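assembly run, all chains below
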Amino acid sequence: MSETRHPPVWQHRTTGKRLLMWFGWLCLVALCVLCWQIMTKDTIWAFVSDAPRQAADLGSRMIPPRWSYLERLWLPLWDTLNIATLGTLLGILFAIPVAFLAASNTTPSRVLVRPIALFIIVASRSINSLIWALLLVSIIGPGLLAGIIAIGLRSIGFVAKLLYEAIEETDILQVEAVTATGASPAQVLNYGIVPQILPAFYGISVFRWDINIRESTILGLVGAGGIGMQLQASLNTLAWPQVTMIFIVILATVVVSEWVSAKVRHIII
Amino acid sequence: MISNSNKSVVASADTSSLSQTTALNDSSTRYSTYPTSWRRPAVFFPNRWLRWGLWLLAAIWFYLAISTIDVNWVRVAEGIERGWRFIKGFLTPDFTSRWNDISTGLVESLTMTLTSTVAGVVLSVPVGIGAARNVAPTAIYYACRFIITVSRSLQEIIIAILFVAMFGFGPFAGFLTLSFATIGFLAKLLAEDIEDIDESQTEAVRATGASWLQLINYAVQPQVMPRLIGLSLYRLDINFRESAVIGIVGAGGIGATLNTAIDRYEFDSAGAILLIIIFIVMIAEYTSGFVRKWVQ
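ok done. output:
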């Protein structure tokens, strides 16, 4: 009866839509194949097919790790932690004003100041801390200072972006209540907005500190201090047992910092 | 005067203390029972001595940390001039004189980004399904979680070092690195998403007698697809940014060009490369936001 009017098999989309989707997928696959061919144009396939043997060779060189090397890693590790923490502090110091200038409800000028603040955020976010470190090492010389500034510059964008989003999400009622008492703009900021974003701020800071520990372990590869310097030296002398030891230390540091950050954020939020 | 009354309003709203109730009962002593000064309640560590002790420890650490920074001020003074040149190079970027190197690096980076994201997404889908507690058997769950943990705890640059040692220099090592990193990132988020799905839809599909594959296809996939697309686009953006970095250890891409430009103190070329990176990241962020809105 009425069943004959329905199609025998249920289908989610109309034929036209499905054709369009298939065409879209086809385009993606074609683009992918094209990219693959351009990318592997210069690849030496002999090396790739040789990889399992190389991996086995590398494995046999890397194991066992040289445990005695550990005692020479404590000082670089301390440096690494300092780079991450001081860099985070530096980044936060600059991120707070940038965030208030970028948030549409606190910015002094939407047409003039806000785009500049947003550009600072994008520029800082899109350039990895390793590239910042590369630049700073060539500008102010190798050492901890370059690492700290690199971490700081990278942190500005991250912290400022999350913070300005938190500022934009604040409850306007509380701000109005404080304004109604006759508070000055600075007092409105201090009593109306700051208490609302404080938990988010602590959470963001600890989160960024955790990421910075992770990133500061490798900054030494380009000469910006910390345990990465040891890694670079060991790689250059092909001392693979030492490299393994450094990887273990880095991994342990990252795991511990992640645990601390998760614990602290759990307490705060 | 204004600021004072202002503070007490905040205080009474905040602490609803005993003085407030007495003030309401006895209006003649209303003003005298209000506290004349107000101090913000401490967020952490209400004990003042503990708080000061922690500040002291922080100060000691700060002093020690600052004192271990060994700054060569002569070198820094020399560097100021170079820093100034970098800023000038950033403002007047030179796209032309190194354009061949830049375009080669850029093509490598972009192709590497796309292929590795696609490969990573394709591989992360089974891993992600396997790592979701509600659709995978226990043994597979633990195996997939292990893959995710390994992939997430190693940083891209460390994987790149190992892959360059195994597969030789060039974008192929970079492609493998980024694919590997993508698996951990996407599979973890996908698994969390699958664990959060609406179970009533799964039950409804299961009640029709659907097989496991049909269950995944008709109950799980429609619920997680918009987010999977959003995450893939986000990862595309991350992979491009990372592709600019792993070139430093020899895994191809624009990072190698940038490294060379900075090593030669050609700051105007370096500025051009950085501007291109920022520009592409901005475009990627804008388009992915647009696509995500359209998908959802």
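The radius of gyration of chain B is 29 Å.

Chain B is about 80% helix and 0% strand.

not gonna interpret more than that til we talk
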